[in-house]
# Entry
Amino acid sequence: MATIAKTRKGKAAAGKPRRRTYLPAAERRKLIIEAAQQVFARSNLQGARTRDIAKEAQVNQATIFEHFESKEQLFQEAVVKPLIDAMRGMHERVEVYEKAASPDEIASLALESARRHVCDILTIFPLLTAALFSDPDLGRKLYREQIAPLIRERGEVLDGIAREGLDLDFIGLANFGMLFAIALDRYFGEAEGEVDIDHFARQFTRMSTGGFARDKAGKAIRESMDGSAT
# Structure
């Protein structure tokens, strides 16, 4: 009888619903956004399901819709907004060049800025790809209206130190393209282990400021290009 009573007691305990941990609304909203970022990065906007986001956040679907009107609004808050905020931060750090007082200070600022840029692109890469490639129309609109202007502004900020003959829009594209390629290779390439941020930052700075050609060859190429442009 004691064994039966113990078993019944165990079943009753097992059947008792677990008490949910209370969280303030702002904190629960933050957990939902973090979970949504993970799910959207894996499944993009079209493939992501709110029940999967709810499971990741350890809430029910009704709770998601208490905070967000739709999956699309959650995508904006979890993916698009933090992506644009991060890219604006990257742009603002480029502006420190204007305050540099000497070439050595510019070099130091450029290297430190490059380190932060590499860290940022590795962080936002899943959001960037989800935002741009989840839906063609959404991605095109986002790129044209918000991302492309920020990329162009990156080039404009470097106007004072750019070599003559270089298009400022192209400078912005080239700088962003290198960062995107670093993140792309990190996420889909064969490299393992931690990223050597300092190595990539130094390589990025050297490419941004001097190109990849040796001095003699680089000078000849630049002179040839300058001549053909006239």
